[in-house]
Each structure stands twice: as C-alpha cells, then as structure tokens.
Amino acid sequence: MSEKKNVGFIGLGDIGRPMAKHLVTDAYNVYVFDLVQAALDELAELGARPCASVGELAAACSHVGICVRDDAQVESVLHGDDGVLANAAPGTVVAIHSTVTQASLVRWVEEAAAKKLRLIDTPITGGASGAEAATLCYMVGGTEEDLAAVTPVFMTSGEKVVHAGPVGSGIALKLCNNYMQYAEFVVLAEAARLADACGLSLDVIKEVGIANGVVNPQMHQFVSGRNGLAPACSDEQMVEIFGGFATLARKDMDCALETAEQNGVIMPTAEFIRDRIEDVFYARDESRPPAQ
User: Fold this and answer.
1) Considering the entire predicted model, what is its pTM?
2) Of 4, 5, 21, 174, which is the active-site residue?
C-alpha cells in the first residue's frame, strides 16, 4: 500500500473551504491554515490537521494549495520567515488558485525556483457552488510533469483540468474567462432594462437567448436574482448583499487590465466593464429594475 501524500491548503473561504474538504480522503493527509479559527475547526472535524502557521503547513507538505483573495495576500503567504518559500522542502509543488496578475505570478515562479520549489498557476472557475459540488474547472500553467502531479489532487474537487500551457498561461486563461463573464453580466443587465422599457420580460430574453446560445444560465441567474432583490432594497442593502462579489469583480478586472498593459494589449471595452461592474452588481442603473 502506497504512503499517503501530505497535502496542504491555505485559505478556507467560500471556495477554499469546500475544496479542502474534498481533499480529506484516504489518499491524503490534509493540513490546513486560515486566520479564521471556525474554518480550521470545521476541517479538523472532518479529519484535516489544522496548522498554527503557514510555515508549519509548508514544512509538512509536498503539495501546497493557496486560495486567498489577491496578489497582496498571496505575497504575504509566500514571503517572510514564516512563509511558504522559506519553509517548504525542495521539490514541493505550490499551486496558486487565486486570481492575480500574470506579472506577479511569473515573479513568484522565479522566486520559488530559486528555492527549488515548483510554483505553478492553477486558478479555478465554478465558484463556491462548483467547489461544493466538486465540479470545478482547473486551469493549469506548467509542464506536463506538473500537470500529472497535480491532477489527482485537483480532481477531488473538480470535474475538468485544462492544461493552458507553460507557467503564466493558467492565470491568463482565468483573466480572459472572468472578463467575458463580467461582460455578459453587464450586457444582459442593460438589455433587460431595454426589454422592460419595451414591455418585454427577462423571461422572453432568456427563452430566445438560451435557444440561440446568446444567454447562458449563469448570466440569467445573476441578472434575474439581482432584479428580484433590487426593488425592495436600499442602496446600502444591495451593497451588503453583493459587496463581496462586486469588489472581487472589480479586482479581477483590474488584474486583467494590468496584465493586458504589461503585454501591450489595449482593451477599451474591458476598461468600461471594469468601471461599470460594481454598479451593475448593485443595480445602480438609471432606474431600478422591476421584480421579475
């Protein structure tokens, strides 16, 4: 019988927590770290091993997954005397699941290589619901060897692993995907306003859009859900409900535009989406949409 692999997971938020839960199988000894004690306690009840620090986790594991909010949080996890880079053993795979800039990712790869660590970009799509249902799609930037090493780990919470190409390709694919998703949200929200002004419902837009492929279930669910809440909510309540999603969307679009600039790509539509996306989440249109 083969020895169980020690796998670590840092960041037990809405997406990271279910990802880590799925790792708790007969194949792995799972080590977890988060600043929220309740999240650690929940994983401990399932059989994971909570760590008091990032360094403790990194020293114990041959695979470390990082699922935190942004570039700054990844930086804090990787660096310092208690960081992953200072404590992981040579050969450890460090998988970055966070949505970050490509430039930061490439720099972290170089810093990890100097420590003989294999840092790769492995962002995911599918959201919290996909993490819970183990239907995530992973986008891997790395070598074929890297892909083979991480795929069994990722398939505990995913149903598809896409090899995007060399390091940096995974995060580029993620940024393109998120840009298209947020553009869909903005377009359908504005189309719904035009439809309502013309006496049409969002349902008929969905009926035709699903038939011809213009509308997908996710964009319809977002706009219909938002429109259902907005008429009865104040601006403050909409921010309370959608604030976390809206600020993440703005952050993701900032990452996409920064990466585009670094690669000499002009994206004027993306700039518009970036500046518009928070208002779309909060239904800050010319008039509040009616309930559907």
Assistant:
1) 0.93
2) 174
